[in-house]
Amino acid sequence: FxxxxxxxxxxxCVVVVLGYIYRAKVEDEVNHSIQKVYNEYSGPNxxxxxxxxxxxxxxxxxxxxxxxxxxxxxRWFKESKNxxxxxxxxxxxISNCTGTLTRPVDLYQEGCEALVVKKLKEIMMYVIWAALxxxxxxxxxxxxxxxxxxxxxxxxxxxxxxxxxxxx
Length: 168
Known about the structure:
By secondary structure, the chain is mostly helical. The chain is built from five helices and no strands. The protein is rod-shaped, with a radius of gyration of 28 Å.
């Protein structure tokens, strides 16, 4: 039992170390992925990636990758030719916002990339802390198992009661 707990404990420690090391690579992956998704945006309520962008912009109160001007470099902006960003970039306190770039004060000023990276790093830290908590509980379980094992070998009270050829 102690050996199995030790194996699980070592696995959790490896996961914690790898999670901490690769936490820094999250930003690179998000940057690459977010560029691709923004370039494939095809308008509100069309396909899943486009709906995801609108959802993220509404929930995180952000617009574009680094700011709202990033939309100028997307295929959707060039094809629509209306000099506006998606309505999901509009601040909810502004009524009748159309996303036009002639009124940038109506739009969220912060880009989404930094906020997405921040959220992912927060989630990874929660996972790391949960793994450390379970690892410490397993360490206590290993310690208890070893104590019982050591006492069993030294204390005759832990000897097995085996009777041979006895019939009840």
